[in-house]
């Protein structure tokens, strides 16, 4: 086969989808959930959002969640206390897998450890989330309340 034919075949293959992984912490105390108010981030500042962050190379989603919880709100979570709640294939930024985990047992008092990115922490009832939220998070929280483990958003 000629090199031109080989190049044509290689170029005809569809590109693989590259996806960013996000982890989201649904920290529950009874029927309330902890949210942080975004500040100085350049995206949806003023909106309430769950403690969350990107999955880094070489870490599991559970390890990422535990790391983000310690970094953002200063709590310690054991891996066995992390419960899967929902996964959402979100179209933002070209495609993200947003994975939501619920935790009801942790050590430490939630504290705003990132005041440069978060202006406040507050607890809201599971069935009465904050008025201003990032829409995909509001949608995911509705699915979690309904017990739906998977959704697609924005495609």
Automatic annotation (TrEMBL):
GO MF term (any one): metal ion binding
A cellular component annotation (GO) from this entry: cytoplasm
Co-factor(s): Mg(2+)
InterPro entries found in the cross-reference section: Nudix_hydrolase, NUDIX_hydrolase-like_dom_sf, NUDIX_hydrolase_CS, NUDIX_hydrolase_dom
Protein's UniProt name: NUDIX domain-containing protein
Origin superkingdom: Bacteria
Domain Nudix hydrolase: start-end pairs: 15-150
Record-stated family: Belongs to the Nudix hydrolase family.
Record-linked Pfam families: NUDIX
PROSITE patterns listed in its UniProt record: NUDIX, NUDIX_BOX
Keyword vocabulary terms for this entry: Hydrolase, Magnesium, Metal-binding
